[in-house]
Amino acid sequence: MTTTLPPVVSRNPADPGDIVVQVAARGAFGAADAVERARAARPGWQRGGAAARSAALGAIATAIEAAADELATLAVREVGKPLAEARAEVARTVAIWRYYAQSPYEPAGAVHEPAAGAGLLLTRRRPHGVAALVTPWNFPFAIPSWKAAPALAAGNTVVLKPAPEATACAQRLADLVQQVLPERVFTVVPGGAAEGAAVVSAADVVSFTGSTAAGQAVVGAATARGIPVQAEMGGLNAAIVLPDADIGQAAAHLAAAIAGYAGQKCTATSRVIAVGAAAAPLREALGEALRALPSGDPADAATVCGPLISEQARRRVTEAWSGLSVVAGGTVPDLPGWYAAPTLAEKVPADHRLLREEVFGPVAVLLTADDLAEAVRIANFGPYGLVTSVHTADLDAALYGLDELDTGMIRINAPSTGVDFHLPFGGTKSSGHGPREQGRAALEFYTAGRTYTLSPGKAM
Question: Which pTM value belongs to this model?
């Protein structure tokens, strides 16, 4: 008996009646078959050499750059990303491929002298095989690229399982990549949890970005198989504002980090901790900044806060702020898409979900602390540890924050959002598992170290 799988459907979150794409799901068997086909293609891709891999990644960057306007428009339509952010993401994606295009020429190991006698000792890094990439919808071009580019540069082949909400973006990215690469070196598998589980169960190395629950399941499955796995998961990021900070600048940074792209970033600010005398002026300035933030149609170049990705996502946000005292927002705009106003809540009970869970929307909680040490304790509380921003004019305070904060990334006088792709990215506690991604850390993750001993065949 043949079971027909439901199709993968992606809708425009600013206009839910607009179906962006509807495609057949591959199913678990189809996903596993894609991995096996990628495995068969890997030896040829690796043996092509550094020059071929470098040229291919550079050509991909050029192809993406040539299609930049089209890709930005698609991201606006499919995932509701405001146009300015969509354009920035595409530019970042081009830069990622160009950055990793140089890496095939990097040294892959070292030569060492033996402790005694003749011969050579070599260390060398080699690709794992097939890399399974399970990616979210919120950065539909950049996240698949910062995973795929280093994996391909190192000689792996790639099978990408994107979030259903970003299917059209993933397919268009694949079109551009596959025009350059040999057949089956880069494959997209549309679908949901079944397809994701299948690629994880068949691949040789796994990189995941998404929710904490799904990430923990991926880590468990990969670890049981004994294969390398990295998982970037949730965040409940804090911003600490000291009295000596430029309050106006801090408020502008925080408003963008709370409500930019409707707060749908793992690096978004969810908790604002005002220290001492900063509390009153920051409350006023941040409330004003959030109310003034351009919200609405993501196709408008001025928009900062567009729609949430789905009706369920908006419901989760509105339920989270229900019944709370708010400084700004707490309303649902009268628009056809899945919108929610940028919101700042205060006087929130210590056990409230906004202080324990990642809601993934344009909402943050205003908290207070008597001094920096208390602020750091508040920031460190909870299950996540991705990124913290500290706003101050005091170098000593900044250095204290750098030393005492329990997060993978710390940004001084800058929004919590906006990290550099050539540096390691990742968090502590439930925010991340395994090695960091991006930068050179990614090249190490997608390769395995080997040690070779070369001894002479006869006595010297």
Answer: 0.96
